[in-house]
Write a structure and sequence with these properties.
By secondary structure, this protein is an alpha/beta fold. 22% of the residues lie in helices and 39% in strands. It is globular and about 45 Å long. The structure holds S-adenosylmethionine.
C-alpha cells in the first residue's frame, strides 16, 4: 500500500485513518467538526503516524479542494447519510471526480430498513430530522448514486448501537458498498 493515497471522508476521531496509516497508506483525514479534528490530531500523535496523515477541516457539502484523480481510495464510513438528495448527489459527483480511474470507494450508510427510519420530521423522500438530519439509503438509491462505478460488493449489515449513549441499544441497519471507478466515468455525472 506504500504511496497509495486514501481520503477518510468524515474521519471523526480518526480511528480508521490511523489504521490506514499503520498499513502504509498516505492518508488525508477530512471532517468539518473542530472537535472531531482535534480528537483526530491527538489520536494521530498518540499512534505516532503524523508523517502519514494530513488533516483537513472542511465541510464536504462544499466543493472538495483536491485535483481531479487525486486518490486511489475514498473511504466514507457513516459520513454520507446526513444530507438531502441534492447535496448527496453533489458529494458523490465530487468523490467520482477526485478518484483515480480504477480507484475504490468504500461507503457505509444507513439503510431504509434501519429502525429509526420514518422517525422525526420528514424533510423529503427518505430524509428525516430527529435531533439531526438522517438520510436513509435504499439499495436502489445507493446504486443509482454510483453511476460510473462498477459495484464490487454490496451488503446490508446489522450492528448494535447505543443511541445517544442511552442504555437501550438497538440494531442499526447499514449498507456497505465497494465500488471501482470506471474509465470515462465523467460521462456519468449525476
Ligand atoms: C458517525 S461519524 C463517523 C466518523 C468516522 N468515519 C467513524 O466511522 O468513526 C460522522 C462524521 O461525519 C462528519 N461530518 C458530518 N457532516 C459533515 C460535513 N458536512 N463535512 C465533513 N464532515 C462531516 C461528522 O463531523 C462526524 O465526524
Amino acid at each position: 500500500m506504500k504511496g497509495k493515497k486514501i481520503l477518510d471522508l468524515g474521519c471523526g476521531g480518526g480511528k480508521d485513518s490511523v489504521l490506514f496509516a499503520k498499513n502504509g497508506f498516505e492518508v488525508v483525514s477530512l471532517d468539518f467538526s473542530e472537535k472531531a479534528i482535534n480528537f483526530c490530531k491527538e489520536n494521530i500523535i498518540r499512534n505516532n503516524v503524523q508523517r502519514s496523515i494530513h488533516i483537513i477541516l472542511h465541510d464536504m457539502t462544499k466543493p472538495l479542494k483536491f485535483d481531479d484523480r487525486t486518490f486511489d481510495t475514498v473511504y466514507a464510513h457513516l459520513s454520507l447519510h446526513y444530507f438531502d438528495d441534492r447535496t448527496t448527489t453533489k458529494i458523490f459527483n465530487e468523490i467520482r471526480r477526485i478518484l483515480k480511474v480504477s480507484g475504490l470507494l468504500f461507503v457505509n450508510v444507513k439503510s431504509t430498513d434501519d429502525p429509526l427510519y420514518g422517525k422525526g420530521k420528514k424533510l423529503e423522500k427518505d430524509v428525516f430530522e430527529l435531533g439531526h438530519i438522517r438520510h436513509f439509503f435504499s439499495r436502489e438509491y445507493l446504486i443509482n448514486k454510483l453511476k460510473g462505478f462498477e459495484i464490487l460488493y454490496i451488503k446490508q449489515t446489522r450492528e448494535k448501537t447505543d443511541y445517544a449513549k442511552k442504555t437501550i441499544s438497538k440494531e442499526s441497519v447499514f449498507w456497505q458498498l465497494i465500488g471501482r471507478k470506471l474509465d470515462h466515468s465523467h460521462i456519468f455525472k449525476l
